[in-house]
# Entry
Amino acid sequence: MSDKICYYDVVIAGAGCAGLSLAVRMARSPALSSWNILLLEQQEKNQNDRTWCFWESGKGYFESIVQHRWSAGDVITDEKCICLDFEPFEYKMIRSKHFYAYCKEILQQVNEQNQARRIDIWYEPVTQILDKETYAEVHTSYHTIRCRFAFSSLPRDIPQDKSIHFLWQHFQGWLIRSATPVFDASRMVLMDFRVPQQQATAFMYVLPFSAQEALIEYTVFSKQLLLPEVYDACIEQYMQMHYPDLSFEILEKEQGKIPMTDYTFPQTDKHVIYIGTSGGQTKGSTGYTFPFIQQHSDAILQALENGNSPHIYHQPRKKFYRYYDRLLLDVLSKSLYPGDKLFADLFDKNQTDKVIRFLNEQSTFWEDISIILSLPKKPFLEAALDTWKQNLNR
# Structure
């Protein structure tokens, strides 16, 4: 470890979605215009390593880099096609390579406009983050950095505990271009359950960008991951079944995994704040993360601008939504009710805009009640009883 000590106001460990979302807000803030900011990342991110999708009404913070948007979609089962009208929402998509480039361009512009401050990105691995009495200390392979606050999106371990629900949302997708026009770019397929369920919950996710280009992604909610060739085989089978004789080329492949858990990540340090998935911003029951990262980043910025502590782990996430997540994870992880039927019921028995507000954690109390009453009662009562017993044993 190097003995060289550097000083910044803020260090952000991890220059991915959460780190860059927070960094650009801080960089643009007049109240923080004198703060020096350092981002640390193991290696430069400039490839399309993931795709972020989310529902949003109106224009969002990253509106200018939304690559595509849909106002309608489908949930498909063996028995029916449930047609969804998203209005007043849109289902928006941002590709990570555009996001990384856009955020770094903003940081560079702010640097050039205000040369009295520093906004730096160093590509070196973080080895340790320490919470000291009056500051945070971040160690890399080459430097020691002291700062007012360290924000970290670096992965954190989830304990092996029977009271903690945990599933992986894991996926692999093909970005394809077909020789002939076959896709309707005005609507997407949110979930097509006509695929091998892997003794879990699995579906195909189809995002058409034009009549000849689409992302076809096989997604599974389960405790165990699959071999790479299994995802490919399921996509190939799907294409043969629903697009027979279609000639296409694979332009890109993407794969990933997102933790779906009700584990409450501890936030006990005074000067070290966790963000992104490590800060509890992944919705346990769906894996959606991007919109909650944006809400969390806004709340952190507001706290800093007002001179308050940026420790706002449980805001804006609401406790009762985490309880709903816990119940759904209990149902899915213990196979109390088939996942494909559960999600189909959710969209089939409720107005689409109400479901979207529920998934975005923006619904009213009475909307929550009506959605809960629309779902099968026995498995959720069993899940509620399990949760109550686990709370007694803690």
About this structure: The first strand starts at residue 5 and ends at 7.
